[in-house]
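Here we describe the complex-level prediction in full. Unlike the single-chain runs in Section 2.1, the two entities below were treated as one system.
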Amino acid sequence: MRGQLPLLLGVAPFGTAYGAYAIETGLSGGLTQAMSSMVFGGASQFVAVQLIASGVPGGMIVLAVLLVNLRHMLYSASVAPHVDHLDSRWRWLLAYLLTDEAYAVGMQRYGRDDESTRKHWFFFGAGFALWTTWQATTAIGIVLGAAVPESWSLDFALPLTFIALLTPVLTTRPAFAAAGVAGVIAVAGFDWPYGTELITAIAGGLVGGMLVARLLEKEVAAT
Amino acid sequence: MNLWLAVGLMGAGTYAIRLSMLVFVSHQRLPAAVRDALQYVMPAVLLAIILPAVLYVGDDASFELSIQNERLVAALIAGAVAWYAKNVWLTVGIGMGALWLLQAW
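The structure predicted for the assembly as a whole is:
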C-alpha cells in the first residue's frame, strides 16, 4: 500500500477541484457526489459539468462522456488475460474500479516476475483506495466550493487540472497532433450548438493522431 | 433529459465500457486500429477543453488571444510548471495564484 501514496495524493487535487468546480457552476452537492460514485472517471466528470453548465442537452452530454471514457476499453482488454482465472463476480468488481490510475498500478503488479495468484487483491486494494480517495476529496471540494465566493474564479480549476493531466500524455508526435487538431476544432467551433464542437474535436483529434502515426511509420519504412 | 437520468446513463455506459473486454467479449477481439485510435482520446479531449476555456473569456465569452488575457497568461505559467515540475498540486496552486495576482494587478 505504501507504493500507492503518491498516486492517492495525485488524485486528491483532481477530486477536490472537481467538487469545487461543480458547485461553482451551480450543480447540486448530491448530483456532484453521485457522479463521482457512478461514473468514477475524473476527466469525463469535468467534461460533464462543463457541458451541463453550458446547457447542452442530456443526450449529448452522455455521448461526450462515453467518448471520453472509451479509452477504458483498452485497459479492459489488457487486464482481461490476467483475470481469466477469476470468477465473474471478481471481474465485475474490478471493472467498476478500472480507472487510469488503478490500471497503471495494477498492471505494474502483473508485470512483476513472480508466481503469485493473488495479484488481483493488489488491484482491488489500489482501486478501492483510489475510489475512497475520490469520494472523500469530491466531498471536500463540494464544501470548499460552497464556501468560496464566485470572485475567486474557481472555474479556472478546470483548465488547470487538465493542463496537469495533459503534459504526461504528450509523449509522442501523434499525441501532439491529436491534441493540436482537437484544440483547433474546439476553438473554431466554439459557437456550435449542443456540444457538437467537443465531439467533432475529439473525433478530429483521433484522425489526426492516426494520420501522423501512419506518416511516421512510412518515413521509418522509407529509410 | 433529467440530469439525474443523464448521470445514471453516464455511469451505466462507462461501466459497460470497463466491463467490455473483461466480461462481455473475448479480449483478443480488439483490432489494432481501434487500439491506436483509443490512445489519442486523452490528449484530444484535454486540449479541446483547455483551449476554449482560456481563449474565450469574460462575461461575454469573447475571443482574446493576447497578453491582456489573464487566463491565457496564467494557463501558460501553469503549463510550464506542469511540464517541468510534473506536480499536480503545484500546477493547480501556482495557476490559481497567478490568475488572482493578474486579476488584482
